[in-house]
Request: fold
Amino acid sequence: MPVATRIEEVRNEITQLAEAAPSAKALMEGVCKILHDRMLKYNWVGFYMLEPGAQPPILVLSAFMGAMTPHTRIPLNQGICGAAASSGKTIIVDDVSKDPRYLACSLETKSEIVVPVFVGKQVSGELDIDSHFAAAFGPEDQNLVQYCAEVVGSKLEKFQ
Ligand code: SME
Reply:
């Protein structure tokens, strides 16, 4: 199956799930499962959410699929995760070995994408995906992952 077709299918599955999911947590769990099961190069998929009221702010591991990571709590001044949450921008790293910010989760990880989740104009967390393949995340992947982060942000807004 061409990758564009698979991405289209996965996007439709995410749309259906977003309509059906009874809570933001259920949606996050479903997004992790669909992306991990269907996107062959997405080897670790997880959400980190900002701990409510924490000062200084800290990201806490939420729903995920893949091996357990040593990084369950990440301050905003650490890691690619911290950089994405503090800047509010998507970060794609084609070769994690060349990025000094990178916090290793698995020795097999070669590339990573981190997309902030917004509730209104505020970052409330992020969707982090690691791949065992270098430069696994192209523009279509970025669109798909940003779409997933958007539907989770909308669901969080609804349930606030
Ligand atoms: N690699 C991330 C840490 C999270 S683990 O990959 C799951 C980072 O550099 O922030």
Remarks:
- The longest strand covers residues 122-131.
- The two ends are 39 Å apart (CA to CA).
